[in-house]
Structures are given as structure tokens and as C-alpha cells.
Amino acid sequence: CSAWVGIRDPYQFTVAYTDTMETSVDAAGWVVRSEQPVAGAEGVVQLKRGQGEKVAKGKEIAVVYQDETYVENQEELLQVKNDLSALQYATYSESPSGTALEDQMLSAMTSLRTAASSGNYSSLSEQTETYRKLVLRREYLLSSEATAAMTQAAADLQARYDDLQSYQSGATSIKAQESGLFSSYVDGYETLLTPDGLSPKDLAAFSQLTPSTDANVLGKLVTDSIWYYAVTVPGDCVTRFAVGDSVDVFFNSLSETFPMEVFQVGEVQEDQVVIVLRSSQDDDKAEDLRQESGRVIFYSSEGIRVPKEALRVSKDGERGVYVVVSQKARFRPVKILAEDENSYLVKADPTDEEDTRILRAGDEIVLASEELYDGKVVR
User: Fold this and answer.
1) Most confident of 72-86, 147-161, 270-284, 300-314
2) What is the helix (H) or strand (E) element at residue 17, kind and residue range?
3) Which of 244, 242, 277 is nearest to 260 (CA)?
4) Tens of pLDDT, residues 77-104
5) Using an 8 Å Cβ cutoff, are 324 and 334 in contact?
6) How many degrees, rounded to 5, is the angle at CA 296 between CA 294 and CA 301?
7) Of 71 and 222, which is predicted with more confidence?
8) DSSP label at residue 284
9) In whole angstroms, what is the distance from residue 151 CA to residue 154 CA?
10) What is the spatial distance between Cα 253 and Cα 285, in angstroms, rounded to a whole number?
11) What is the distance of C-alpha 56 from the center of its chain?
């Protein structure tokens, strides 16, 4: 019975849906940057910079201590330094007093309360330290016993601070030779890969290398926001690339697309060609990319996908498709955006603002071998 109905019923239907079509080429290659390894030293390393943090030239990246004793001394040194700073402020003759002191204390209390009520604790340590100094200052001024005690405590802390400082001679400070973004990820390719003079054989050779990194390397500095993606593509694709063209690159490992520019187009060698793409988009997601696969997208368009056999030309010469409305076929004019082997990507193409013949995703499209016209019963 079902077979008989199928033979007798000349109409088939499908649902229109939103989709994307693109013109692209698969690619695989290497991400290249201006990178400078940061050498350390033997001992206990204490990094001073976070992942992706900007570091100015000459600024400290890390401190290397000879052993754990130096690390413990460093922590105590910091605490002693803070305590000493508070007492020195409290006992300093030119620190605020009287009304000025009361006003500053009130302001510090207000700042703490505002931060607590808003949940903003980013400056809590600084705000707390400021209030602590002011409280000690008032106590120093009001009590003669406190005055003597704080003066003696400040002298003791100074002696302890000087003692701890003497232990710091064994610490090595690692400073940035150039300004850049710090990354703890190193793979040995930092000094091997450059965007100049790459060939298909060069890229193939890189994949066979197993570069080693010095055990004392702490990380690297990315010294330029511009980065490159050197890829090998089939030689017959070379005409699609022109220096200066804008393309989108989809990286499989990130499942994300980055806008890039064609920087260099190599010569075809053994039916392959190296294309170097460039990006100035400083995105931390791309910081640790190296050997990557993906695709270079030349053109991408979003619209409604319809089978090629659904496209018709009306008696008025309009190109479009028929959809089912109340069991009848209704014509919907469309404009073709792109196509592949089996489908068109289209968008609604009404004649004017008052034309209600709009094709929408979810509409049921008529596929028929017989002649169709607007208003014909198809069910």
C-alpha cells in the first residue's frame, strides 16, 4: 500500500534550514612568533609573572634561590618589611595628626566598607594596610606607653630586616632582556622557526624534529603581537592566494576562527606551496599554538539551505521555491548566495517591503517531478 501511494503521489517534501557554506582549503602547518627563551639558574625558582602578563624591558621575571631557606627568608622579609613600614609611618613626625588623621581614618573605613558590600576585594590588602597604619599612628599619638613600645619595636624590626637582607645575596634576579608577554610554555622551536624562506620541505622537516629545551629555561617572552601561520597547501590552490588578501583561519585544536592576512606566497614545489599568513590579533588563546591543522576560509556565507531540485522559475521569471501552506504550494522568491554539489544556499528575495512571500527556516519545501504553480494542491 505504501509503495502504491509513493508511486501515485508525485510530490516529496523537505524542510528548509539555516546553514553556512564556505569556500576553503584544508591546511596544516606551524605557528611562528618572535619569541625569546628566558634562561634561569639552578635553585628554587619563584616566578614573579603570570601567564600572558606583560613585562617591560629590564623588569624582574623571576627570582632563583639557592635552596628553600632563601624562600622562607623571602616570605619573612616581606612580612617584616610591611610591619616596619607601618611602624615607621606611625612614628614619623610629619605623619598626619589631629583632624587630618581622623578624616583619613574615616575615609579608609568607608573604602573598606564599600569594598566589602560590593564584593570587590581586588585592593583589599592595600586598603587594610592603609587603615592599619592610621590606627597605629593615632595610638602612637595618644599613649606615651605606645610611643615607647612602637619606637622600640621599629628598632627591633629594622635590625631583623637588615639581618634577612644579608641572606638575599644568594638570590639571582632574572630580568627581561626585551619587553613582551611572558609564557611558561616552551617547546624548543622558539629560535628555529621564522616566517622567512620556508619551503614545503622545511615544514615537513620540522615535524620530524624533536628539539630539546634547557632544563633551566623558565619560559619565554613573546616580543611581538604579530604572529604567523605557515601552511602547506596543494599547488593548484596557489591562484587563490594573493599577498594582502584577508582570509579566515579555522584552527581545529581551538575550534575557533581567526582573521588573518596573506603575508607570503611561495613557489610551487612538487605540487605543494607554502603560504605564510599573518595576524596582529593579540589573542591569549593563540599563545601556545605551534603545529596546527585547520582550514583557510576564503568566503563564508550564511543562509537557508535548499536542495537544487527544489529551485524553480515562476511564470513571471522569478527564481524561487515552493513551500506548503495549508496543503497548497506557495511560491517564495529567493536569491542564491552559494552552492555545492547538491544544494543551494539562498536568502529570501521579496520584490518590495510589502511582499509577504518570505522564505523562512522551517518551511516545508516541495520537491516535485510534475509542474507546479502557486496555489496548486499538493496534499
Assistant:
1) 300-314
2) strand 17-32
3) 277
4) 778 888 888 888 888 888 888 889 999 9
5) no
6) 115
7) 222
8) G
9) 5
10) 11
11) 21
